[in-house]
Amino acid sequence: MIPSNWYNIIPDLPSPPPPPLHPATMQPIGPDDLAPLFPMELIAQEVSTERFIPIPQEVLDVYRMWRPTPLYRAHRLEKSLGTPARIYYKYEGVSPAGSHKPNTAVPQAYYNAKAGVRKLTTETGAGQWGSSLAFACAQFGLECEVWMVRASYDQKPYRRSLMRVYGATVHASPSPVTGAGTKILAEDPGSTGSLGIAISEAVEVAAAAEDTRYALGSVLNHVLMHQTVIGEEALKQLPEMPDLVIGCTGGGSNFAGLAFPFLRESSKTKLRAVEPEACPSFTRGRYAYDYGDTAGFTPLMKMHTLGHDFVPDPIHAGGLRYHGMSPLLSHMYELGMFEAVARSQRECFEAGVHFARTEGIVPAPEPTHALAETIAEALRCKETGEEKVILTALCGHAHFDLAAYDRYLSGEMQDFALPQERIDQALDGLPG
Amino acid sequence: MIPSNWYNIIPDLPSPPPPPLHPATMQPIGPDDLAPLFPMELIAQEVSTERFIPIPQEVLDVYRMWRPTPLYRAHRLEKSLGTPARIYYKYEGVSPAGSHKPNTAVPQAYYNAKAGVRKLTTETGAGQWGSSLAFACAQFGLECEVWMVRASYDQKPYRRSLMRVYGATVHASPSPVTGAGTKILAEDPGSTGSLGIAISEAVEVAAAAEDTRYALGSVLNHVLMHQTVIGEEALKQLPEMPDLVIGCTGGGSNFAGLAFPFLRESSKTKLRAVEPEACPSFTRGRYAYDYGDTAGFTPLMKMHTLGHDFVPDPIHAGGLRYHGMSPLLSHMYELGMFEAVARSQRECFEAGVHFARTEGIVPAPEPTHALAETIAEALRCKETGEEKVILTALCGHAHFDLAAYDRYLSGEMQDFALPQERIDQALDGLPG
Hints:
By secondary structure, the first copy, chain A, is an alpha/beta fold. Chain A is built from 19 helices and 14 strands.
């Protein structure tokens, strides 16, 4: 039931996405430029033109610990809404780390171990990705060093604990152990950090050591491709083709992982990405070349971005607080292959509580965005009488985010207005 | 694959367990004595002599949200130990509340709703049971009011949050809203509470209101019976009969739920209960009639007890901190139908970290007791070369217990010596 291949959508697109550029030369980067950061097999996947790439047996053996993940019909949610829509959700929270992230952490750790790498570095916001990579490294005997955004490091000690249980070393970012971190701390000793800063730190350490590489939890082509195990399973599990697939987007891997196989197999299926109003890269960002990190260590990628200096307001959906977006998804959005909407924090938590009380699972703040949109769509169907088939991505549980639900239930949660001038200001600094 | 019947082991025993007694008359209690606390269908299950009791369709519909639960072969753990033993574990952490507790919370809520009850009260220690009953009440439209032991209420805010997300009202116990709580607070305003006190509060409120009943998460016959869904599933999932079933015991429902069907089907299978050294009711308690709660509101039950005044040291396995034990299991222990051992807190957490790094799942503090014993048994097999087949109960995950792992990893966790005089003193007050 676990698929034997990942699906690479790029050869099925009318045109490939624009290449990443080297910031010094503004020329497309080659495999050698990426070699200090990634092992060759992952670089090959990043630029592959094969539609299907076999999943190695060693990776399948670990996937089997929680895959295939369940696909549920949301009977109780439907009933509570009185909708004629049929709602299905694919639940990735059954993984050891509690989200879809291990789907790519495991192959990334595997290919690095195979290439003789000793240690992986990475960044993490709320800790979903860091704990997934820590788990994967424990499976393949790799060391794991994580830079965790300071705000989350202080507010979410249990994700940090989880990484430690799996044997990882965790730094608050900005940290004094890197040049990038030291520089930022000198300017602002009280910095609460950002994903962009943490990426700079992890990349700096990986690039400097021969036996160390870097791993990214979203955005890149190979990451999105690893996540297609979600959609491939859903294709086999669903009793009917969906009219609409809804997923939340931060870097884009969860949405892409569920949606891409349906683009291949079903002409009637439409896709909708949901992002937070506080970090609206699709709906209010610019499609332009930008850095993936704050310090400008990464190649330039053409993507929907709010500017690499943009620091999103502290919404609880830490996994969606990224200034950029997957270049592949950005390209497809420009081609009109899916739509995107933004949702406010409080309407998302309202949906999360509604979902928990009907379906039992308490959704992480990130997928509450997809659920808020799913509920809104189901209520539209109630008005029109349309028996729309909706598939949504429940990419993780909220066991480490219950303080946020407490704030919502106590009426203390706020929404964040994002004035246009803040976006304009951040975009002003775009390179190129 | 979900079983269609619960298994009631009582008719298969050589003799039935001694009956509960009314403390005033010292005569066996009848159904009418229990009617203020439980609906008639649950009372009937408590005293049933039928071997199999059909699971209602409404309960199966909710079980289906997470059942059947996975049964895994612990290949990676075996390999890390170099043992010839074959280790299997049944994982109950995939339930919405994260443990085996919803297996009984759901039928209890169902039978109460069917009987026209409006509200359920209960106690909870670390919060596993309270969040399970809150989830179950949300499924059947019941109100839920929980008394949570003060120490956990303050130290584990996220379990409290989870109950609130499911719509329950949560009090710290002892609380000023009951007579029992008020009395204890008057004597000791800083009381951190105990399960025995919280039971007194929940029972008091249920007994006083016509439309309110009480629910207990372990100990009673019907609770153990509901948990046999675990063992019935495991029987069908296992490729070979186990030589040994190992489970942790607090009130006994997790151990009984996994083990009872194997007692019925396999003559070669031996059972071993594992309890904490800090709360050793089987290995150091007395088999005697005692109250289930601190205030003495419950009937007297013949069980292995440390005395209803006994307050266990604050180990992190809150679910195992109960002075008594299931009367049914106590009777079977006296009949020599299984063995029992005790494990210290630190050896349990050591096993938990070992398990997390090999099998991926971080076990709750309670099942680390079973895992510590499983690992010890597997290492014995390594010495003898015996290819023993071991089945263990992984009854929940540690997503709400990571602070405890942090303490262990930081070297700050302590073991608790339990001097014999503390046990003697508590047993001294036994009634009868």
